[in-house]
């Protein structure tokens, strides 16, 4: 037996099986049939069996034989229309032949101009008849004289032929059986439904009564392609049944049929009447199935309406009015063509085109699902309409118009539904209209006009051309394939991204997903080959701008795309062009476009190498000279477009000058720049819009001159400024993230600034104040002698009420960092830095300014934790000059340490460490320079970022590498930066060595580093508590625990012990203790329980019964915290009870926090009971936990109903070995319930209650008073 081929078979295996098959002589399962070529006259063997439904219209001619006679010569072909032609008796056939001669010689030889001067000229008469005359189906049927047979497939031309010869098509055969059509019984049309429903009944009646001679068959129309055969089969089956039935049964069936007469007459749908005629003959009459109530009454001359489908005509009815639905469920949103949401109860007219045959036809508008469906329609108009509507929806969603009316994020829902792939597919459409709509929708998704406007307005600010890349927030993804591999063997991020699908990449980053889907190549094709309309060109350029703002990598891909930038440069930034004939030209090709110049500027901001490629390889230098050499009015462009092109050219030059490039053009265009600068104070634009454009051009010119001056080695003041009411830091609404936020497609959210347009508009005070502080800082830096000359002005500015109020508001502020706020926050951070530098210079020389030294220091501490990536130089300057400056800590020189020590006397008890708080603070102030050196050394790894940031802030343009700032991943320094020395030491020794190293074995300088860290923390907790407010108390406790975990005896060192005691007392103050929430995981840790487990293990190993360490261990065992930590002590680390000797007097936490409320955890009560019974918990070893265990067990016993039986006098003490049956063993499968009786008996038997000093007051439930 032959086997089936397998996928693993090779070609030789298949050939071997073929030979075996041929040798066996078996029959093939498939026969190859060659279809005959009809064009060559080849006949098919089954021509006569061609299916009936595939036959075409056939025109039969009477008298024509079935076979073609073989006559030679052939008879002349007769035309049925020949008799209609007009013939004249004296017509010469030769002249007729000449008249129809179409040869070129005949035509050229008879060119004779007729004289038409005497012929009157008249217009043709107007008529409503079309020319040529339209032949209607109704006209053809009237000519025939009989209506068309239902199901007939004759064309209009066939009906015309039949009308000319009524005898055609009436052939009949005597040998055929009698087939009676519905018309024979008086009907006009037999519907398929009626025939199928009553066919057997009528045939039964015909056969029984026999009103005609012989058997009669009803037409089987509707029974399928073999209707004649099927009808004959049914007839034969009925005949066989009748022959086998007795006459009485036949008459009984006849009476049943007659009894159904009223039902059949009232059954309107079937329209069947049964009447009794002469000789009791039963007749069945069928009437047309069109008399039911239909929305539209079809006429017989209508095409394709011979077979009615009422359910498909329902859509022609009038729609019901929308009704108010009393439901609380959310309804599907519907939009009109402009993207506006349509209320479900709104009744709109149908001529607006918003009604369709969807699931809810009475509701106007289109849902997102329906728009997605229409965007893939086969009709071009529907695809374009759907894409344009989606574009309007995206535009409105970007500005937050749906946030109040719709539930959920519209943009996120669209992206999750696959909008990105839908638009990418639509871009490949061959129809230009659909492709243009797809470009418009993609632009609405990616581009935010408000963001672009704000970035353009921010460009002339100080360091305004630098911007954060619009990258999504980094998401750490765990790759199981890389676990356990060496770093050199792990895949890079680029390799991992290459393995991902387009959907996975687009889900995390929309722009990366589009680049992976080859969007740039398609946009190049559209610009180069399709050459679309002007608005499509602008949309494509804006899309490229948004992609360029994504990252340096995306900008480089735009430059590397073959022929993309060459097309942009040659077509939209030409060196010469023809002036347009209208203000709105029909094509932008060959004309300068300001959006294209802006694209060059944004690309140049990505890096100095990108900028050099644009200037040199792409010919950007020549384009700059061409656009700037002439005035905007001389560029032969529309006025507004000319000003915009000149402005963008100046901005492009300014970006190039910020890298030290293209500065040689300054000499060539010096006269043009000076002329433009002289005319800046008197703008020539009379109207508002043009005036704004000219102001932007003047600002761009000033930025250019500033960058050129920086490159030449000088400094010049720029713009910026702020007041409290315009502060992003002091207004949480402005720094909060936008509602319509897409993590994979970040934006600036500038639409929110429409409520406060002056924040970034031309009238914003931000440029003025920053420019003023920058100027004063430059003047005091050039020469210290100038400080006295500008002292009065500086003091008046720093001590102004608005500035002090603004600084006071900044102290307690906690602005959120996101893409929507970072672009403004970095400018406000620069303003604060310049203001603090000026105040720092004035504090030593002016007593009035020195009064506010603590305010300046608090703002500096807050600013240090706010600074964003790219501002590392500012952080370094703050740490070096302001943060650790003793002059900004006036508390240290005005009795501050003594006041702190006096305040501490109210709180401290016998648990106070040997030295008070005052000497510790005084010693910490004396070590401020060493503390500063400790932190600067710890942050030495940020040196490359500091140097790069310094070059940008000091205007060292030749060393700048890019105007793109580092990726926005949060502030440069963490909010808990004062704890960094402790965390760093724990990472180096505590994790790797398990905390087993002694203090002298730690890395060099570790003890001093920890001491300086604790001293700085003590200063902040005592005098700058607001600086550590962003750090939650649980994080402070976790960081201080590193003192015990990084070494085996570091906490025993005297300075470390004293400082840690002081910080611990600050954590257990009533206010701080109430805010301590151990259920929240500390930043950087999965849970506090894991840290506490490590702390217990370390205490068991190296604590030596230290009181401070013991207090740290006891703190999480308070009753209001999770029982898991108490279970860890009494279960996994029960040995700790032997050395946890903190007495009730040494406990710095109130005992009530451990005993109240009553313990309700039965497993924990069992562990308390076991520890007491087995002697693992004793009062002499662990007094605090002993009291806690006895208190909870006593409260549990007296809370039971059987507690009164314990005190019965009949209970006699007895000596026996008590078996703790309530404790589960390894082999036991169930845990017995612990009862109060078991506890009481166990405590009595072991002598706990006899020797317990609390036994006399158990009934009073007053444990605290008994001690």
Automatic annotation (TrEMBL):
Domain RPAP1 N-terminal: 233-261
Keyword Transcription attached: yes
Protein name, per record: RNA polymerase II associated protein 1
GO biological process: transcription by RNA polymerase II
Top-level taxonomic group: Eukaryota
Subcellular location as annotated: Nucleus
Domain RPAP1 C-terminal: 332-397
Source organism of the structure: Pygocentrus nattereri
Acidic residues bias spans: 476-486
Main location as per UniProt: nucleus
Record carries keyword Transcription regulation: no
Gene from which the chain derives: RPAP1
Leader peptide range in chain numbering: none
């Amino acid at each position: 037996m032959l086997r089936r081929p397998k996928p693993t078979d090779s070609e030789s295996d298949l050939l071997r099986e073929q030979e075996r098959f041929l040798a066996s002589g078996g029959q093939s399962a498939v026969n190859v049939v060659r279809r005959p070529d009809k064009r060559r006259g080849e006949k098919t063997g089954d021509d006569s069996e061609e299916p009936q439904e595939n036959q075409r219209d056939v025109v039969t001619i009477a008298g024509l034989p079935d076979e073609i006679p073989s006559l030679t010569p052939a008879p002349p072909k007769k035309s049925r229309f020949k008799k209609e032609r007009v013939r004249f008796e004296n017509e010469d056939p030769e002249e007729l032949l000449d008249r129809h001669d179409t040869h070129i010689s005949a035509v050229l030889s008879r060119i004779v101009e007729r004289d038409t001067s005497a012929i009157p000229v008249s217009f043709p008469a107007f008529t409503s008849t079309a020319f040529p005359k339209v032949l209607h189906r109704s006209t053809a049927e009237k000519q025939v004289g009989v209506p068309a047979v239902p199901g007939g497939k004759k064309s209009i031309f066939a009906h015309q032929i039949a009308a000319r010869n009524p005898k055609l098509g009436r052939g009949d055969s005597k040998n055929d059986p009698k087939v009676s059509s519905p018309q024979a019984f008086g009907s006009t049309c037999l519907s398929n439904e009626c025939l199928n429903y009553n066919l057997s009944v009528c045939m039964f009646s015909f056969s029984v009564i026999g009103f005609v001679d012989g058997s009669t068959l009803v037409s089987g129309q509707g029974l399928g392609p073999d209707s004649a055969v099927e009808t004959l089969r049914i007839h034969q089956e009925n005949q066989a049944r009748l022959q086998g039935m007795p006459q009485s049964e036949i008459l009984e069936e006849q009476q049943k049929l007659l009894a159904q007469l009223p039902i059949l007459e009232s059954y309107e749908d079937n329209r069947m009447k049964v009447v009794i005629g002469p000789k009791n003959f039963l007749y069945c009459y069928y009437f047309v199935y069109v008399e039911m109530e239909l929305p539209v009454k079809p006429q017989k001359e209508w095409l394709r309406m011979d077979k009615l489908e009422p359910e498909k005509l329902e859509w022609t009815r009038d729609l019901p009015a929308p009704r108010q639905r009393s439901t609380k469920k959310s309804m599907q949103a519907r939009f009109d063509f402009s993207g506006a949401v349509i209320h479900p109860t709104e009744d709109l007219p149908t001529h607006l085109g918003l009604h369709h045959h969807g699931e809810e036809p009475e509701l106007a508008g289109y849902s997102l699902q329906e728009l997605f469906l229409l965007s893939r329609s086969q009709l071009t108009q529907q695809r374009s309409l759907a894409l344009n509507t989606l574009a309007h929806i995206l535009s409105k969603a970007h500005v937050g118009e749906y946030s109040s009316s719709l539930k959920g994020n519209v943009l996120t829902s669209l992206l999750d539904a696959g909008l990105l792939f839908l638009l990418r597919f639509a871009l490949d459409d061959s129809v230009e209209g659909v492709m243009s709509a797809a470009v418009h929708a993609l632009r609405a998704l990616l581009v935010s006009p408000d963001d672009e406007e704000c970035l353009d307005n921010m460009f002339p600010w100080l360091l305004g051309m630098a911007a954060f890349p619009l990258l999504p927030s980094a998401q750490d993804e765990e790759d199981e394939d890389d676990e356990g591999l060496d770093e050199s063997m792990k895949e890079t991020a680029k390799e991992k991204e290459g393995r991902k699908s387009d959907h996975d990449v687009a889900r995390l980053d929309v722009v990366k997903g589009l680049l992976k889907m080859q969007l740039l190549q398609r946009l190049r094709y559209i610009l180069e080959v399709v050459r679309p309309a002007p608005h499509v060109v602008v949309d494509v350029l804006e899309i490229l701008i948004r992609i360029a703002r994504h990252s340096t990598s995306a900008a480089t891909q735009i430059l590397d795309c073959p022929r993309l930038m060459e097309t942009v440069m040659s077509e939209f930034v030409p060196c010469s062009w023809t002036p347009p004939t209208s203000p709105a030209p029909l094509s932008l090709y060959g004309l300068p476009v300001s959006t294209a110049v802006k694209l060059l500027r944004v690309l140049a901001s990505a890096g100095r190498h990108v900028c050099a490629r644009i200037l040199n390889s792409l010919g950007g230098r020549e384009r700059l000279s061409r656009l700037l050499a002439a005035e905007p009015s001389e560029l032969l462009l529309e006025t507004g477009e000319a000003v915009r092109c000149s402005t963008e050219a100046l901005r492009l030059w300014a970006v190039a000058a910020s890298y030290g490039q293209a500065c040689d053009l300054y000499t060539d265009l010096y006269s043009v720049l000076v002329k433009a600068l002289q005319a800046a104070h008197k703008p020539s634009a009379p109207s508002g819009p043009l005036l704004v454009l000219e102001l932007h051009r003047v600002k761009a010119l000033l930025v250019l001159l500033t960058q050129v001056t920086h490159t030449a080695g000088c400094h010049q003041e720029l713009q910026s400024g702020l007041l409290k009411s315009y502060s992003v830091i002091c207004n949480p609404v402005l720094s909060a993230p936008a509602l319509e936020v897409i993590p994979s497609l970040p934006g600036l959210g500038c639409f929110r600034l429409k409520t406060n347009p002056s924040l970034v508009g031309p009238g914003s005070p931000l440029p003025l104040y920053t420019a003023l502080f920058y100027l004063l800082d430059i003047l005091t830096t050039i020469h210290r002698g100038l400080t006295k000359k500008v002292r009065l002005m500086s003091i008046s500015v720093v001590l102004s009420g608005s500035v002090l109020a603004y600084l006071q508001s900044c102290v307690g502020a906690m602005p959120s960092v996101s893409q929507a706020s970072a672009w403004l926050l970095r400018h406000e951070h620069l303003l604060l830095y310049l203001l603090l530098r000026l105040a720092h210079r004035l504090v030593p020389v002016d007593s009035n300014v020195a009064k506010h030294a603590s305010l300046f220091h608090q703002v500096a501490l807050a600013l240090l934790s706010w600074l964003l990536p790219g501002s590392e130089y500012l952080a370094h300057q703050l740490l070096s000059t302001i943060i650790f400056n003793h002059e900004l800590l006036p508390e240290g020189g005005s009795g501050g340490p003594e006041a702190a020590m006096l305040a501490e006397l109210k709180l401290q008890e016998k648990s106070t460490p040997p030295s008070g708080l005052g000497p510790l603070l005084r010693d910490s102030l004396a070590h401020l320079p060493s503390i500063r050196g400790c932190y600067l050394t710890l942050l030495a790894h940020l040196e490359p970022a500091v140097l790069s940031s310094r070059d940008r802030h000091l205007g060292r343009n030749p060393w700048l590498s890019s105007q793109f700032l580092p990726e926005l991943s949060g502030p440069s320094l963490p909010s808990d930066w004062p704890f960094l020395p402790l965390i760093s030491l724990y990472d180096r020794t505590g994790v790797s060595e398990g905390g087993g190293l002694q203090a002298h074995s730690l890395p060099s300088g570790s003890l001093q580093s920890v001491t300086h860290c604790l001293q700085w923390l003590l200063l902040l907790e005592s005098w700058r508590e607001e600086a550590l407010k962003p750090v939650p108390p649980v994080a402070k406790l976790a960081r201080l625990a590193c003192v015990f975990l990084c070494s085996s005896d570091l906490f025993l060192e005297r300075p470390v012990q004293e400082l840690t005691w002081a910080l611990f007392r600050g954590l257990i103050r009533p206010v701080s203790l109430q805010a301590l929430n151990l259920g929240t995981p500390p930043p950087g840790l999965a849970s506090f329980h894991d840290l506490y487990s490590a702390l217990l293990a370390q205490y068991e190993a190296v604590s030596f019964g230290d009181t401070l360490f013991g207090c740290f261990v006891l703190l999480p065992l308070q009753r209001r915290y999770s029982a898991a930590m108490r279970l860890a002590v009494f279960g996994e680390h029960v040995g700790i009870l032997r050395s946890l000797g903190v007495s009730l007097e040494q406990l710095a936490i109130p005992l009530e926090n451990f005993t109240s409320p009553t313990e309700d955890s039965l497993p924990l009560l069992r562990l308390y009971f076991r520890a007491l019974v087995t002697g693992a918990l004793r009062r002499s070893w662990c007094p605090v936990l002993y009291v806690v265990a006895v208190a909870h067990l006593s409260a549990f016993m007296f809370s039971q109903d059987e507690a009164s039986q314990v005190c019965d006098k009949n209970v006699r003490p007895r000596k026996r070995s008590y078996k703790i049956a309530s404790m589960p063993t390894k082999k036991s499968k169930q845990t017995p319930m612990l009862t109060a009786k078991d506890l009481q008996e166990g405590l009595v038997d072991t002598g706990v209650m006899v020797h317990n000093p609390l036994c006399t007051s158990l009934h009073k439930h007053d444990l605290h008073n008994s001690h």
